[in-house]
Design a protein that fits this description.
It is a single chain. This protein is an alpha/beta fold and 466 residues long. It has three domains: 35-192, Rossmann fold (3-Layer(aba) Sandwich), CATH 3.40.50.11060; 220-391, Rossmann fold, CATH 3.40.50.300; 395-457, Alpha-Beta Plaits (2-Layer Sandwich). 42% of the residues lie in helices and 17% in strands. The chain is built from 14 helices and 14 strands. Strands 6-7-5-8-9-10 form a six-stranded mixed beta sheet, sandwiched between helices. The chain has a four-stranded parallel beta sheet with strand order 2-1-3-4. α11 links the parallel β9 (337-343) and β10 (368-370). α1 packs parallel to α4, α5 (142-168) runs antiparallel to α6 and α10 crosses α11. The longest helix is centred in the middle third of the chain and has 37 residues, at 182-218. The N and C termini lie far apart (85 Å). 35% of the residues are buried.
C-alpha cells in the first residue's frame, strides 16, 4: 500500500495541557495521587488548595511571585525557566521529584496558558481547568455530563484558536497560506461536537420548562436551594425531604438538579442544584444555565451560608452568591421571595452567630434562620417558615363527626386534607377532629365547597405549629 494512503495530509497534533483531552483518546478521568506544584501571584491560595484536595491532588509546594500578571506568561519568564529546570533535574530526594502537574491560581487567558505550558514542559491547569476536571469527575447524570462537556469544549476552543493563530501568522515561509493544519481539523471537529451538544441542551431546557409548567398546573409550590459550593445544600435537602442525596464535605459534589417533595407536605417541592464559587468566568456557569434556572425560577429561594466560616468568609460568599443570583434572574419575572439560611450551627458558637448576623445586617439581611443538618436543630423551624411564606400562617379548623351512616368518615376527610396541606397539630375531642395546618387559600375554598358544614374554621389560638 502506498505510504501516502496511511499518513494524514496535515501536521501531527501534539497533546497540550489545558486541552481537556479533545486532542487525544487517552482522556484521564482520575487524578487521585498526582503530585502538583502551585504557582500564584497575589491571590489567596486557600480555596484553590481545597479544590485540589477535593480531587485528591497533592500540592507539594506553593511558589509565589508578587507583582502584576504578565500578559504573556502570568509569572515572569525567568521564574518559569528556573521552575522548569528544577523540575527536570530534581533527584529522588528532592521534594519536587515526581511532580507531573502545575496548578496556576488564576484564570489565565488562552495565550498565557499555552505559553506557560510551552515554557514549563509540564501539564498546566489554571483555575478554570481545575474546575472543569472536577466537574468531569462529579458529573453522574446524562444532563450533567452534557453540560460539563459543553463547558470543557468552550474552554478548549479558546486554546485551539490561540494555536491556530500561531500556525497561520508569522514571517516564515508558508505562514498565512491556505491548506489544513492539525489544529484546524481539531477546531472544526470541536465546533461540530459543540453544535450537537447545544442541540441536546436546548431539548433539555424545553423538558425543564415543561416540568415547571406541569408543577404550576398541579398547584405545587417550589423552593430553590442556592448558595456557595459546600454550604450544606444537599444536607439540608436531605433533612427537609428525606430523599437520599450525595452529602459530602467536598466542593461541587452536586452538579445536576435534584427535586424532591418536602416531608409531610406533598405540595411543596425542593430543588437542589450546583453551587456558586468566587472568580469563575460567567461563560463557564452559562453551560449550567438550564440547571440553575430550575432552581432559581421558584416561589421561594433559600440562600444558604456556612455559618462555621470566619465572618469575612461568610460575607465574601454572600456577596458572590447574591451577585450570581442577580445576574441570572429574569428582570421581567419580578423579584422572588428570598430567605437566608445559616447552616452548620453545630460547628460554631453563639457569639460567632451574632457576629455573622451583624455583618449580614449591613447588607439589609434582617432575618436569618439558623440550622444544623447534623443535629437537626432549626429544621422544623425552617420547615414552618417555608410553609408560612408559601401559604400564609397556619389555620385552626374543626372536622365534625358524621351525622349519618352515609356521611364520609372523619378518616377519609382527614386523608383528603393531608393531601392538600401540611398538618402541624392534630387532636380528637367529642366535637370532632381539631387540626392546625398550612393550606393554600385556593385549596381552603375548594375544601369548604366539597365538605360544606363538616369543616369549620376555629378562632386562631397560639399553637406549636406557629
Amino acid at each position: 500500500m502506498d505510504s501516502s494512503m496511511k499518513d494524514p495530509d496535515w501536521d501531527p497534533v501534539p497533546l497540550i495541557a489545558g486541552s481537556g483531552g479533545v486532542l487525544t483518546e487517552e482522556l484521564r478521568t482520575s487524578h487521585a495521587g498526582r503530585r502538583a506544584l502551585m504557582l500564584t501571584r497575589n491571590e489567596n491560595p486557600t480555596e484553590f488548595l481545597a479544590l485540589a484536595d477535593t480531587m485528591d491532588v497533592q500540592v507539594v509546594e506553593i511558589v509565589a511571585q508578587r507583582g502584576r500578571s504578565d500578559k504573556r506568561t502570568h509569572l515572569g519568564r525567568g521564574r518559569l525557566e528556573a521552575i522548569r529546570d528544577e523540575l527536570r533535574m530534581a533527584p529522588e530526594s528532592h521534594p519536587w521529584f515526581g511532580i507531573d502537574l502545575v496548578l496556576v491560581n488564576a484564570n489565565l487567558s488562552a495565550r498565557q496558558l499555552v505559553n506557560m505550558t510551552d515554557m514549563l514542559q509540564c501539564e498546566t491547569w489554571d483555575r478554570v481547568r481545575l474546575l472543569l476536571e472536577l466537574f468531569t469527575q462529579h458529573a453522574s447524570s446524562v444532563e450533567a455530563r452534557n453540560q460539563v462537556r459543553i463547558a470543557r469544549l468552550n474552554a478548549d476552543r479558546n486554546v485551539l484558536r490561540e494555536l491556530v493563530n500561531r500556525e497561520t501568522t508569522g514571517e516564515r515561509l508558508g505562514y498565512g497560506a491556505g491548506g489544513r493544519t492539525g489544529w484546524n481539523v481539531a477546531l472544526n471537529a470541536l465546533n461540530r461536537e459543540l453544535k450537537t451538544l447545544r442541540g441536546r441542551q436546548r431539548r433539555y431546557s424545553r423538558a425543564i420548562k415543561e416540568r415547571q409548567r406541569q408543577r404550576r398546573a398541579s398547584g405545587a409550590r417550589t423552593v430553590g436551594l442556592a448558595g456557595y459550593t459546600n454550604a450544606g445544600k444537599s444536607s439540608l435537602f436531605a433533612s427537609l425531604c428525606g430523599k437520599p442525596v450525595i452529602v459530602e464535605d467536598r466542593y461541587f459534589s452536586t452538579l445536576e438538579t435534584t427535586v424532591g417533595r418536602m416531608q409531610f407536605s406533598p405540595r411543596v417541592l425542593l430543588v437542589d442544584t450546583i453551587g456558586f464559587i468566587d472568580d469563575i468566568p460567567s461563560d463557564l456557569l452559562d453551560a449550567f444555565s438550564a440547571t440553575l434556572k430550575e432552581s432559581l425560577e421558584c416561589d421561594l429561594l433559600l440562600l444558604l451560608l456556612d455559618c462555621s466560616d470566619p465572618v469575612e468568609e461568610v460575607v465574601r460568599k454572600f456577596e458572590t452568591s447574591r451577585r450570581e443570583l442577580f445576574d441570572r434572574s429574569d428582570p421581567d419575572a419580578g423579584s422572588y421571595d428570598l430567605l437566608v439560611v445559616l447552616t452548620k450551627q453545630d460547628s460554631c458558637s453563639e457569639s460567632h452567630v451574632v457576629a455573622v448576623n451583624h455583618a449580614l445586617d449591613s447588607f439589609g439581611v434582617s432575618e436569618t434562620i439558623l440550622t444544623s443538618s447534623t443535629s437537626s436543630e432549626g429544621i422544623e423551624h425552617l420547615r414552618s417558615n417555608i410553609l408560612t411564606r408559601l401559604h400564609g400562617p397556619p389555620i385552626s379548623f374543626l372536622v365534625s363527626p358524621p351525622n349519618s351512616a352515609s356521611d364520609r368518615p372523619i378518616a377519609a376527610i382527614e386523608s383528603e386534607i393531608r393531601r392538600n396541606s401540611m398538618v402541624g397539630e392534630r387532636r380528637m375531642s367529642d366535637e370532632g377532629l381539631h387540626l392546625v395546618a398550612w393550606i393554600d387559600p385556593a385549596d381552603w375554598v375548594r375544601l369548604n365547597r366539597s365538605l360544606g358544614d363538616r369543616i369549620h374554621r376555629e378562632v386562631d389560638q397560639p399553637s406549636q405549629a406557629e
